[in-house]
Amino acid sequence: MTRYHCEASRKGTKKIDSQLINNKDNQIKAAIASWIAPETFYGLNNVSNYDDNRLYTFANMANAKTLRFGCGYQENCGQDVHISCIYNLMQVYDCDTETGAMEYARTCALKQSEQSEREGYGENVYIYNAPNAVPADAFEAAAEHWWGQVFLDGINWKVLFKQSLKDKSIDQKSFTQMAWAKSTKLGCGIQTCGMKSFVVCRYSPA
Q1: What CATH code is carried by the domain that includes residue 175?
Q2: Which positions fall inside the SCP domain (predicted)?
């Protein structure tokens, strides 16, 4: 779990800092308890009950398909601690998804395809400034570029895709596509186009 401090909290005495840490620990425990609480309150009659919106936080924690999760918190200069956890579903490399990505890469369009041309699939594209690129190098550069968008302007603390993200002057949609919670399949293709290499990755479901 990543720890962040505001400067004001670091200038206090050890006693104050200790109180702040204890307060943080208590709030983290309280947050976890509140996420579990809906199952205790509403019950869990059967697996289909996971679709009940009242069980949303419990279902996130209990989902057997979750492969990885990460949490972070932000301590304000007051007594509030903002806590957020992200859960990633298991994602597999899919040959059918790769086929579609490769077919589009071969067009050398050098831009994202129309949604109507890949119904049900999300897509990220990247132009690598070298022909006949080593695929691993080009894909690594593409992934770093797409994921790096989150550091340009941040995302709301709940990490939800909202209209405000679409309206930002800084494009962060490639990051959100990589982090899209419902995407479980990934496939990529690369094609030399003149003096560049065109990288395409597709995600399903979109």
Answers
A1: 3.40.33.10
A2: 72-206
Sequential pLDDT tens for the chain (206 residues): 444 443 444 444 444 444 444 566 777 777 777 777 776 666 665 555 555 667 666 666 666 556 566 676 676 656 666 777 766 666 788 999 999 999 999 999 999 999 999 999 999 999 999 999 999 999 999 999 998 887 777 665 555 656 666 666 667 778 778 877 678 889 999 999 999 999 999 999 88
Evaluate whether 195 touches 142 at the Cβ level (below 8 Å). Answer: no
Domain of residue 178, residue span: 92-204
- Do β-strands 196-204 and 66-75 pair in parallel, antiparallel, or remain unpaired? unpaired
DSSP 134: -
For the chain, the first-to-last Cα distance in angstroms comes to 29
Question: 44 and 103 in one domain?
Answer: no
Residue recorded with tokens 């831009």: 111
Last residue of a domain, one of 31, 59, 89: 89
**Contact, 91 vs 67, CB < 8 A?**
yes
Residue 57 neighbours by CB under 8 Å, 6+ apart: 34, 35, 36, 38
* Strand ranges in the chain using DSSP code E only, listed in sequence order: 2-4, 66-75, 81-89, 92-93, 122-128, 185-193, 196-204
Residues 98, 111 share a domain? yes
